[in-house]
Structures are given as C-alpha cells and as structure tokens.
Specification:
With 309 residues, the protein is mostly helical. Helices cover 71% and strands 0% of the residues. It has helices at 2-30, 38-56, 59-83, 88-106, 125-128, 133-137, 142-160, 162-172, 174-179, 184-210, 222-232, 237-259, 266-270, 272-287. Helix 11 runs parallel beside helix 14 (272-287). The chain is globular, with a radius of gyration of 20 Å. The mean pLDDT is 88.
Length: 309
C-alpha cells in the first residue's frame, strides 16, 4: 500500500504540468485552432518563472510575468492563425522553435541555479487524518489544486454554459456560429490567448515545483506529450486529468526501475513515455478508424467570413 501511495503521489506531481498544458490546448483546439506550440510556450513560461522568481522571490509577481509573456505569444499566434489565416501546423511548429531558441538565450544567466520552496504546499490537517486519501491529498502544492479547479471549471464551461455551447459550435462550424451572432474572430482570439496562458503556467509549474533548476530544453518533449494527451482525452478536460496522471506515472517508471536494480540502460528507460505515446496513438487510430475522432470538425481550417459555400 505504501508503494502504491508513493506511485500515485509521483504520478500527480509529474502529471500536473502535462494536465495544465493539455487543458490550455483543449481550450484552443475547441475553438478550431491547432496548437502545436506547447513545447515552446512551456519553455518560455519556465524561463520567465525562473528569471522573475530569482530576482523578486515573489510568487505572485512570477505568475503575473509568466501570464504576461504567454498572453503576448498567444496574441501573436492568434494574429497569424485567425487574422492572417496562416497554416496552423507551420505556425505552431514555428512557435515551438521560437520558444526553444528564446528560452535558451534568456536562461543562460540562471542555468543551474536552484529554486527551492517557491510554491508552498497547502496543508490540510483535517484531511491528513483520513487513511490513504490523507497521504495523497493533504500536502499537495498550489499548482496541483489549481489544476483540479481548472478541470472542474473547464468541464462546466464547455458542457454546462451557453459560452461553452458557442465554443463547441464555433469549433465545428464557424460559419454557422457567425450566422447565429457569435463573434468568431473575437472568441478565437480569447481562447488562444487564455489557452496560451495555461500552457505558460504549466511551464512555470515544471520549473518551480517538479524540477526546480533551469536547464536548456528542460521540458524534454513534455509539450508534445501534452498535444498527444488532447487527442487521447478526445478534447475532454476530465479525461485529460486521467491521461495526464497515467503519463506522469510512465515518466517515473524508469527511475523506479533503476532504484530496484533493473539493469537496463537509462536511455531506454527514458524512452518509455514517448514510446507508449506512439503506441497509444496507433492503437486509438486503429480502434476508432471507422468512428468519429471527437475532434472539432473545423479544427485546422481557417475561417473566411466573406467566403461563399
């Protein structure tokens, strides 16, 4: 039982950045815009969190800085994909390359500097008395509780509000949504900017909580796993939570195997989460080959308001 509790704790800790990034991607892609820039956004969020916290030692200022830079990058992404109607796949890849390069340049001054105890744990003494649940949930950090609230809020927003109905309608048929009076361009701008903010916060969580030292390329492909999680979860926030913790657990299996003395090269152990990602994508593609994918029908398609059908 103790081993199981430890695995659940590690899965939650390593899965939280994936979950927050996936939630941001779901919000963006529900509006009809493909998000392939999560890796670059997470890196920029991480390096901005490190730079701000080391200079101010204030978590509030740090989060505001991360949100600000993520919003600016999200605005640029929206300008290109919504207003200029550029190819969304190419734009997302360009965003990843831009974020990777800029974060590497900005992070030179803080590389290797430890950032300890930046995010406080929320202690719940009343919950600590509960067997099992107390061991898991009584001392979670602020970002983890934020991710729980985000899952609930986004699920209610998408499936229980009129704004969520507008979002789903816009993702499936922006022309129809426009006819019904929904401001498609403004709505997409808002979704892309808000989703980019969440992805930037995911990068901040990765640096401030999970790996409290900046190193170049520290996301190590987690942004791409977050993109895959959106597909696994079928653009559903609750499913994204389960998938994120599953892949968070996979990312720690290699380390656990090394601790118990399994003689497998570390390079192969590090491949486990990425290999499973590919296998799951293949399995889902084969299983649902004759079924709807669950993706917004207009995903990746630029909207021309003046176009006649």
């Amino acid at each position: 039982m103790e081993t199981m509790i430890q695995l659940i704790q590690v899965a939650i800790s390593s899965g939280t950045p994936l979950l927050i990034a996936a939630l941001g991607g779901i919000l963006i892609e529900r509006s009809g815009i493909i998000q392939l820039g999560a890796e670059g956004l997470m890196l920029l969020g991480a390096v901005m969190a490190g730079l701000t916290y080391l200079h101010t030692e204030n978590l509030t200022f740090t989060l505001l800085a991360v949100i600000a830079i993520s919003a600016v990058i999200g605005l640029l992404h929206a300008v290109f994909t919504v207003s200029l109607r550029t190819n969304q796949i190419v734009t997302g890849l360009a965003l990843t390359l831009f974020g990777s390069g800029l974060s590497a340049y900005l992070g030179k001054s803080i590389s290797g500097i430890p950032i300890a105890h930046a995010v406080p744990a929320i202690r719940m003494n009343w919950l600590a008395q509960v067997p099992v649940a107390g061991d898991i949930f009584a001392r979670l950090d602020l970002f983890t509780w934020l991710s729980f609230l985000l899952v609930i809020a986004m699920h209610l927003f998408i499936y229980r509000t009129s704004w969520g109905l507008h979002l789903r309608a816009m993702g499936d048929s922006p022309a129809t949504a426009d006819v019904m009076g929904i401001r498609v361009y403004a709505f997409r701008y808002g979704c892309v900017i808000a989703g980019s903010m969440l992805i930037g916060i995911a990068g901040a969580d990765l640096l401030l909580v999970y790996t409290p030292t900046w190193t170049e390329g520290m996301t190590a492909g987690r942004g791409w796993i977050a993109v895959a999680l959106i597909i696994f979860a079928r653009w559903n926030p609750v499913r994204a939570l389960l998938c994120a913790y599953f892949f968070g657990l996979l990312s720690t299996i290699g380390f656990r195997l090394q601790l118990i003395g399994v003689e497998i090269p570390s390079y192969f152990l590090k491949m486990i989460p990425y290999l499973v990602t590919i296998l799951v994508l293949m399995a889902l593609g084969w299983r649902n080959r004759n079924k709807p994918s669950g993706a917004p029908e207009a995903l990746g398609m630029p909207y021309y308001r003046e176009q006649r059908f």
